[in-house]
Design a protein that fits this description.
The chain contains 16 helices and ten strands. By secondary structure, it is α/β, with parallel strands linked by helices. The strands form three sheets. Strands 5, 6, 7, 8, 9 and 10 form a six-stranded mixed beta sheet that branches. A two-stranded antiparallel sheet has the order 1-2. A two-stranded antiparallel sheet has the order 3-4. α7 links the parallel β8 and β9.
Length: 498
């Protein structure tokens, strides 16, 4: 069968289709190569074209990093900087061992004269002893009237405890929970570690303890949320987490709110939710009127339009879109990444200034950069060739959809350029999810949210989570309900400082 030759228009259309498909496949290939072999950092280092070049002092992009070749790719060789040090606490216990020569060698074999001690050679080595466990033996004498039995028995009450009938002391509970929610160890690994020291505790019992502690600390958890919702700005994000809903595994979501004062607000509040539906934002935020930082998820946009909040979209997400568009317009991509980098550099200076000076700096330096970006992005969308399904087109479209909100952060001193505080709060959850895989029930998900909130807030404030959790667990039951905020991590830290 003889087919008619294709017309020029058809060939051009076919060529355009194949080019678009080729570009899409190339972008996918580059993305997969970067995930397997490349670095994940989106850091952009711009070259200074005005920098003088001298013989023997080539720029970094001209120098070849020493590398070793292995079958699949090249790997950078590690070079020592000579600055490796060990920093030890001043109160570290010390055990002294004296290694002396035998008594017969303390006498000169030729003259019989005793050798005189002239000094010592001292060597320090950092040593380790497996974690020690001990039983608390609490003895409470009982007293009774010798002649009047009806007066009953008098005995001192037990010390206040978070879990009164639990055989585990608060110190052990704090250690187990810190290992799970800070060190990301699943309970079966914690049980194995205990068994190496001869302590056998079943995983089910460990799980019951963790859930009980999480539910008992919920009053602090609720106060933390109230504090976030009274701050002038917050950051919000969400991430999936699996639940073992026997006999199958189903998906739930952990939402996170970050709030408080300063460039990196300290409070991290996690909320275990059944799904990712829009009404969850209303449940979380209620009638919050402050500044909201988030990604472009529709649930946040709907809430912000309804409540008329100031929305500050995340420039880190914009940067990521252009960073992943590797097969698009290389020159334009490099330019816009450098411009976004300039905005972040301005912010480093801005947060060292007073609120009034911060706004002034953003007005004079950041706004002109954003205006130039808006102008050039719009122009690039209408001029030149852009393949419709490319990541470059997606990045341009993403930027344009945020144009009405891009300068919001420049008008408010407490606002940020990005949503990185929420992104960082999600990261421990993502790391933990790779280890413990799923939560065991709805109840354990709620307990996990409470404990993550308290311990990750401790991490943000550079507090020892184990020390904090042990202390408040001993005190919370006897603490005044009207003063529970004193046990929040930041208030606890202030009290310790005094």
């Amino acid at each position: 069968m003889i087919t008619a030759p294709l017309s020029i228009e058809n060939l051009q259309q076919q060529n355009a289709t194949l080019s678009a498909e080729n570009l899409s496949l190339k972008e996918q290939l580059e993305w997969f190569k970067r995930q397997i072999f490349g670095k994940k950092s989106e850091r952009v280092v711009g070259a200074n074209q005005d920098q003088l070049q001298f013989e023997g002092f080539e720029s970094l992009d001209q120098q070849k990093t020493p590398s070793q070749t292995i079958p699949s790719h090249e790997r950078k060789t590690r070079t020592s900087t000579g600055k490796e040090t060990i920093k030890l606490p001043e109160d570290l216990p010390m055990e002294t061992t004296i290694i002396d020569i035998p008594e017969e060698e303390k006498v000169c074999q030729e003259t019989g004269v005793s050798l005189q001690k002239i000094g010592e050679e001292v060597t320090h080595k950092l040593a380790h002893r497996p974690g020690s466990y001990y039983l608390k033996r609490i003895i409470r004498p009982k007293y009774a009237h010798p002649a009047q039995e009806e007066k009953g028995i008098t005995i001192a009450p037990m010390p206040e405890s978070l879990l009164p009938k639990c055989r585990a002391d608060e110190s052990l509970l704090a250690d187990i929970i810190t290992r799970k929610f800070v060190d990301h160890l699943p309970l079966y690994r914690i049980a194995e570690g205990l068994s190496r020291d001869g302590i056998i505790i079943g995983r089910r019992l460990l799980s019951q303890w963790v859930i009980a502690v999480g539910l008992a600390l919920k009053p602090l958890y609720h106060i933390m949320k109230e504090r976030i919702l009274t701050s002038d700005r917050l950051h919000i994000d969400e991430s999936p987490v699996d639940i073992f809903d026997s006999p199958k595994v189903s998906q739930r979501y952990m939402w996170v709110l970050v709030g408080g004062e300063g460039v990196d607000p300290p409070y991290r509040y996690y909320r275990f939710q059944e799904n990712r539906k829009h009404n969850n934002v209303n449940k979380l935020l209620g009638s919050y009127r402050g500044i909201i930082h988030s990604d472009k998820y529709g649930a946040y946009e709907t809430y912000i339009r309804k409540n008329q909040n100031i929305w500050c979209p995340c420039f880190a997400h914009i940067r990521r879109k252009f960073f992943e568009a590797e097969a698009g317009d290389a020159t334009f991509r490099a330019w816009i990444l450098e411009e976004i980098q300039k905005l972040f550099e301005i912010e480093e200076t801005a947060w060292r200034l007073s609120p009034k000076e911060r706004v002034k700096l953003r007005q004079t330096q950041s706004i002109p950069i954003i205006d130039t970006m808006i102008e050039r992005v719009k122009k690039r969308l209408t001029e030149g060739i852009i393949l419709p399904k490319s990541k470059f087109k997606e990045a341009l479209g993403y930027f344009c959809s945020l144009i009405p909100y891009l300068k919001n952060y420049t008008q408010n001193a407490s606002a940020r350029l990005d949503n990185n505080p929420a992104e960082r709060a999600i990261r421990p959850l993502a790391i933990g999810r790779k280890n413990w895989l799923f939560v065991g029930s709805e109840e354990s998900g709620e307990a996990a949210a409470t404990l993550l909130s308290l311990l990750q807030t401790c991490r943000a404030l550079n507090i020892n989570p184990r020390e904090y959790l042990e202390d408040i667990s001993r005190r919370i039951m006897g603490h005044s309900a009207k003063k529970l905020q004193e046990l929040l991590p930041d208030e606890w830290l202030k009290a310790r400082a005094k």
